[in-house]
Structure formats: structure tokens, C-alpha cells
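Hi P.,

Sorry for the delay on this. The queue was packed all week, but I finally got your sequence through. Input first:
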Amino acid sequence: MTEQIRNLLGRARFRPFEIVTTDGEVFRIPTVDHAHVPPGGFRVVVWDDRGVHSTISVRHIVRINESAEDAA
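Then the structure:
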């Protein structure tokens, strides 16, 4: 899962996407600056527009929605 997220973040032409977790929470990634996969790849750090971050264990990621461009 982290390799897929790294690939999405590293695209030449970034497109927004969403990370969905086991509890149904959706983390929208509108720009490349809103997420990071640290070395080791066991978690993903996501920031909102206020600078508040969430750390997501890869074990809790159930889906990545790559076509989140039209999502609010």
C-alpha cells in the first residue's frame, strides 16, 4: 500500500486521491504536500490545511481512491 501511495505522490502530474481506513475515515490528499510516507513504509502521515497531522498505520488502510479529483 505504501508503494502505491509513494507512486501517487511522485507522479509528474499530481492528481488528488483519498486514503480510506478500516473505520471508514477518509483522508483526502489534495496536493503532494499533504502526505508523506516515512522510511520503512509502515505508516503514512497526512496533514490537513490547518497543519494538523494524522499518522495512519498501513494495516488500517483498506482502499485508495485515485479518482478523488471531483470529491469535496
